[in-house]
Amino acid sequence: MMERPLKVQKREQSIQLEKCSGPLNVQKTGQNTQQLEKHKVPLTLYCQCIEYISQNLQMVDSFFGFPDLVAADIFQKAEKLGKFERNSDENDSLRNLQLFCNEYPENVLVGLDLSYSYLALNYWLEHFLSFNRLHSLDVSNCFLGDDHEILSHIAHLKCLKYLNLRKNCLSDKGVSSLCMPFKVFKRGPEHLTILDISENGCITKRAVQKLQCFKDLQKIDITGINIKVKELGEQWKVCPERVESITCVKNEGWASQVIQKWVELASKTPNQGEEPKTAKFYALKKRIKSQTVIKDLGTISFMPQYRLVLHRVNSHKTIPAAAPSTKCVTPTEHDDHMDSIMNLYKA
């Protein structure tokens, strides 16, 4: 047989190599693209510094001199890393929070809403006491009582303007503890403008008289407290308002998302299984009594969408020289009508 020319043999070999190497090249290119996707885009030097500081807050003594924009980025990164949560013994969440509150108090949090969040308030109490530049605060429906530690903290908030203390089982003692630091030492919420003390049935006219030390106070919600219009005097006037609340408070500041996480974590209680039969042997009557009390608190009847609000009467009036210095307040038909309305708000 005649042998093929050398050029033809080389051509056939090259074609065979191309056929065999084709799918291998495709596989190689596919693997290369997957490897490139795995590689992350390199971080800038600024982002690397922010991440390093956020991961090592325990090594930071103070943020004195740091710009607000840089501190805000560090705070957000620390929040993502869980530096403000009680996830381990090594993570001192209280100290991490105080690092920012000491230097940027008005940026960290100016508005705090803890309504219906008594579990979160008690669990994170030390953390909440770090916020000392609050402008608005809502701790309604928390059943605090007169001796709760948060009341003494509220009494020293200099920048506080809006405060909601609705349904907290307060009496005149709790209100007096709120007024005492400012009344004696002139330290406290001197700019307090709107106050809600409604649905605290043990508060009387004495508490309203003590609140007169706050000169900027213009509105007080007295719905459901033990007071009559005739006992208010000339400095206050009752005006029903068709609103759900005279205060509108929401979380404002860098820590707004942190507060939301705290409240969600506190509200998540472990799933309780069925109670054993022995648990119902002695505590049956006591448990039924506590349930009825909570049920009664939720069925207090009020006039829908109306709040009884005290408005401060402008005292800057020109008084004639012949007018007497003191004047006795006589009951009027309007006062009697308002008293009858206020009785509807009592439990």
Detailed description of the structure:
The chain is of the alpha/beta class and 347 residues long. The protein folds into two domains: 64 residues, no CATH class; 186 residues, Leucine-rich repeat, LRR (right-handed beta-alpha superhelix) (Alpha-Beta Horseshoe). It is 42% helix and 8% strand. Helix 2 packs across helix 3. The radius of gyration is 33 Å and the shape is elongated. The termini are far apart. About 10% of the residues have low confidence.
What is the structure about, briefly put?
The chain contains 13 helices and seven strands. It has 347 residues and is α/β, with parallel strands linked by helices.
What are the SSEs and their pairings?
Layout lengths: L5 H33 L6 H11 L12 H13 L12 H11 L1 H4 L2 E3 L4 H6 L1 H4 L7 E3 L10 H6 L7 E3 L7 H14 L8 E3 L8 H6 L8 E3 L14 E6 L14 H12 L16 H15 L8 E6 L20 H11 L4
Parallel strand pairs: 1-2, 2-3, 3-4, 4-5
Antiparallel strand pairs: 5-7, 6-7
Helix pairs in contact: 2-3
Keywords: Leucine-rich repeat, Repeat
Organism: Crassostrea virginica (Eastern oyster)
Family: Belongs to the LRRC42 family.
